[in-house]
Amino acid sequence: MWDWHVDKLKNFAGRTILLSHRQLFTAFGDGVGKGESGKTLAYNPKLYSAFQPFMKSVALWLWGHEHNFEVFEPYIGLDKGRCIGAAAIPVLKEQSPYGQIGDPDLQGQTVVPTLKQGIAQLSMNNDNVYFHDYAIMTLRAPGGATPPSRIDYYEVDSVNHGASELMFGEAIS
Fold first, then answer.
1. What is the Cα–Cα distance from 146 to 19, expressed in whole angstroms?
2. pLDDT tens digit sequence for 141-155
């Protein structure tokens, strides 16, 4: 199942951007499934075992699955893990998308994944519905391109469809 991806990573000298539906790790909701202990897992052991040897060549990993916007601190060898899964499905306040996993199975890690400080979470409109998100990635040729490749993350009111607002932007290197 992972053979194609692993082959491409083995045979590419540069850094890459991974896109997936499933998250490598999370600190929210129902995590990435249950471990042998019956506890919620903080990271996906199948994705991790397949991609762990290549983490230093992953410049950015974007995933969805959770209907949320999450900018994580580095975790299990991945410098930039981002959830941009709030593009289509309405999420209500009572669904608590930023509710932390309680007592997860850390599978040998010492901490749960954490969000970067100072990055806004999705806003909520007057109907108690979280805003949607999207990202715009600008890729530049490698080798000192100015400005460098970057990604900007935006939110837009999921009910009233007003103007988009920049939430966070970062260079991709």
1. 24
2. 877 667 889 999 999
